[in-house]
Amino acid sequence: MKRTADLPPQPPPIVGFEDCYIGGFVDGFHTHDRAQLSIFLAGSVTVNTLDGSFVLRPGQGMWIPANTLHQVNCRTDLMFQVVYVDSCLSGTDLPFKMFEASTLIRGLIDEIIAMRFEFTMDERMSAIARLLVDEIGRAPRIANRLLFPSDSRLRRVCEAITLQPGDCHDIDYWAREAGMARRTFTRLFQQEMGMGFAAWRRRVRVIEAASRIAAGQPIAQVAFDLGYDNASSFSTMFHRTFGVAPRTLRLNSSSTSHT
């Protein structure tokens, strides 16, 4: 396992490495003084910030701006590439972003990692760095973000549900857990989240499902564990959210992990 502390005292403006974490490892909340670009090659991971949670699978990437507080939770054994980008490079003021890693992005990262840590930012490396940052900016954003409310009572409920996505307690139960009347609970939830409680919980489940399917769990078992009566209704909801069938995700994850 590598850390930013392993980098030389004065690393080049852009530097990276490939590494792996074991399933269950949690890298607690921390920040970096450089922007961090992570590309996930195998496994599944949850990245948490103060106001949201992101579940990523193989082939996806994440840009984390400098000094952004974040936590990493390895849901399975994880293989990834990480690149740290200094703000002295133009275009690095990109917002937090999750995206599909194109062949070009992965190729540029491979070139940076192949240089190890000790190299000079000559014309070639400067061109690679500029193109990489530009491609990150152009990559379409993925909306696999799970937002959390700011109200502490609602947040407590949401955090409990993310820990047990298959929980089937009704809205009256969760309103009581929050110490609110049902009407107050539903109104405040809609106001803070821009969606109803049921819609938010469905989103929790399909994002959790995507992670489990990418990790190799049987689709029927995932559907059952997450509270669906049958695989058909689960597949319908999954397709409505991601635009693809669960089986497509399984095939894409398998092909990515063998490249």
UniProtKB/TrEMBL annotation:
GO MF, one term, reads:
DNA-binding transcription factor activity
InterPro entries per the UniProt record, alphabetical: AraC-bd (IPR003313), Homeodomain-like_sf (IPR009057), HTH_AraC (IPR018060), RmlC-like_jellyroll (IPR014710), RmlC_Cupin_sf (IPR011051), Tscrpt_reg_AraC-type_HTH (IPR020449)
Question: Mind telling me what this protein is named?
Answer: Helix-turn-helix domain-containing protein
**Keywords on record:** Activator, DNA-binding, Repressor, Transcription, Transcription regulation
Alphabetized Gene3D superfamilies for the sequence: Homeodomain-like, Jelly Rolls
A Pfam family (short name) is HTH_18
Q: Would the keyword DNA-binding be found if you checked this record's keyword annotation?
A: yes
Gene source species: Acetobacter estunensis
Q: Where is the HTH araC/xylS-type domain?
A: 155-252
Spell out the PROSITE patterns in the cross-references. Answer: HTH_ARAC_FAMILY_2
